[in-house]
């Protein structure tokens, strides 16, 4: 049976790593067909809008999308398209694994953790966001809800249970931000009581960052709010070799979007030298979501084997090969 997914090729290096990823998926024989949709700068040029209605309709219909990076301006310009997609489809769970790979520049060899980040509320709602007329004062509100906190913590515990993980750490700043962060922590404690077989730990966010750098092996599943999760998940990517090895899943009740979490890297766009691993690992998360865990594991194993052999690696991994050569080396090990 064929499963149709929406494919967004993205901006910058996005089309190159997407072509490489689809090449490997086709060699994998996962029974996927692709419905291509536009978003980002490519959509703006072609349709006059960043997220065309046809793209939203495609995701709604197929319920699963694989997405390359999209441009997000810093300090001005249009709002994040990624944030807009998460809100549009209520993709409340952002799932970011950080797992050590062989022959990387990482300082660690034993990292195997998952960050589960609340994806739809918190600081990124930016409610009432404004800058005073004189440019001297800026304001942005933060809102945390019982519903949002409960479902993300429950997702983390269910993920731990289904994957055989033993510990969930709730990360907060309730010692200072007693309202929003305090609510999240209190609800995390309530949910944790329903999972007595899984160890529950509370940790303040600044201590978490220090502990991740000192002893990352102590963590298993981390669950936290939107802003803290964004920062911590990138820190965790740094523990295992960088964003080139960092996939992300955005999960909701009725849709899911899988992606590489790094940026568009416009400085190397079009050169065919970008590392496709993050998007390939996002595709592996997608295969798990689609009920194909064996194909997901085959894909991850092929990536590991290629890195162990140092075969056709891209420059960021210590090689001098191109994007598609790396993808072909991975495909040959499926």
UniProtKB/TrEMBL annotation:
The keyword Cytoplasm does not apply. It holds the Pfam family Iso_dh. One of its GO terms (molecular function) is isocitrate dehydrogenase (NAD+) activity. GO terms for biological process: isocitrate metabolic process; tricarboxylic acid cycle. It comes from the Bacteria. The keyword Oxidoreductase applies. Keywords: Oxidoreductase. Residues 4-330 form the Isopropylmalate dehydrogenase-like domain. Belongs to the isocitrate and isopropylmalate dehydrogenases family. This is Isocitrate dehydrogenase. It comes from Stenotrophomonas daejeonensis. The lineage of its organism: Bacteria, Pseudomonadati, Pseudomonadota, Gammaproteobacteria, Lysobacterales.
């Amino acid at each position: 049976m064929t499963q149709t997914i929406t494919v967004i090729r993205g901006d910058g290096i996005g089309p190159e790593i997407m072509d490489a990823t689809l090449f490997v998926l086709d060699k994998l024989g996962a029974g996927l067909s692709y419905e291509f949709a536009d978003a980002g700068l490519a959509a703006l040029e072609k349709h006059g809008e960043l997220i065309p209605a046809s793209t939203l309709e495609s995701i709604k219909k197929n319920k699963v999308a694989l997405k390359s990076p999209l441009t997000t301006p810093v300090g001005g310009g249009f709002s994040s398209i990624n944030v807009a997609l998460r809100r549009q489809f209520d993709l409340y769970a952002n799932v970011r694994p950080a797992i050590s790979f062989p022959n990387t520049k990482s300082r660690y060899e034993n990292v195997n953790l998952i960050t589960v980040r609340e994806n739809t509320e918190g600081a990124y709602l930016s409610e009432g966001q404004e800058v005073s007329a004189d440019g001297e004062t800026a304001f942005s509100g933060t809102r945390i809800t019982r519903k949002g906190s409960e479902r993300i913590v429950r997702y983390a515990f269910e993920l731990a249970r289904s994957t055989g993980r033993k510990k969930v750490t709730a990360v907060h700043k309730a010692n200072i931000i007693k309202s929003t962060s305090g609510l999240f922590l209190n609800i995390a404690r309530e949910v944790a009581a329903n999972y007595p077989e899984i160890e529950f730990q509370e940790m303040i966010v600044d201590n978490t960052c220090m502990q991740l750098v000192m002893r990352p092996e102590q963590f298993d599943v981390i669950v936290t709010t939107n802003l803290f999760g964004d920062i911590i998940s990138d820190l965790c990517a740094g523990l295992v070799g960088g964003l080139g090895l960092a996939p992300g899943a955005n999960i909701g009740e009725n849709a899911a979007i899988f992606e590489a979490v790094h940026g568009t890297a416009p400085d190397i766009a079009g050169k065919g030298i970008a590392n496709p691993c993050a998007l390939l690992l996002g595709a592996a998360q997608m295969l798990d979501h689609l009920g194909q865990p064996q194909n997901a594991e085959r894909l991850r194993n092929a990536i590991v084997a290629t890195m162990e052999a140092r075969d056709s690696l891209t420059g960021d991994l210590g090689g001098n090969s191109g994007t598609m050569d790396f993808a072909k080396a991975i495909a040959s090990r499926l």
